[in-house]
Amino acid sequence: MSDNKITMPLSKEVAKSLKAGDYVYLTGVIYTARDAAHKRMYEALMEGKELPLDIKGNTIYYMGPSPAREGRPIGSAGPTTATRMDKYAPKLLDLGLIGMIGKGKRKQEVKDAIVRNGAVYFAAVGGAGALLSKCIKKSTMIAYDDLGTEAIRELYVEDFPVIVVIDSEGNDLYEEAVKNL
Length: 181
Fold this sequence. Notes:
It is globular, with a radius of gyration of 15 Å. It is built from 6 helices and 7 strands. The longest helix is centred in the first third of the chain and has 12 residues, at 35-46. Helices cover 25% and strands 27% of the residues. It has helices at residues 12-17, 35-46, 89-94, 108-117, 129-133, 173-179, and strands at residues 3-7, 23-32, 59-61, 99-102, 120-123, 136-143, 152-166.
């Protein structure tokens, strides 16, 4: 395991260099989207419409923030369970999404799409939303404002801590940890 400081957006080369278990600190632009936003994006794609953001080469953080406190760009910003996005993730990965941040396991279809596309799945620490929000320096709503906390936001993060859970070769930190018990 190693520590890596990465400038976002994530390149294919950097994504492929990451290994399950690596600690990573992200700096740059990532996007937020949860269940409702993923459903809307998927429906737009099925109707042949454009997505509200260029998914190619970007990373989505599965998070719905709490309201911002005075002087802060965002409130508590902890991850949500990734499996709720699993029915949409393979399609987005095939369109060029390179990174996902959430918590918990992923279905085999998502793992297959991660490998097929040289992508990566990161975990952020659940329950640490207040601490994670301190790494978010700017938050801009870019789509689906009517969804409130589930709207799509563009975030600028500095040294945002995550762990590689599933790497581009399909190695899964959760599965490896169970084998080593």
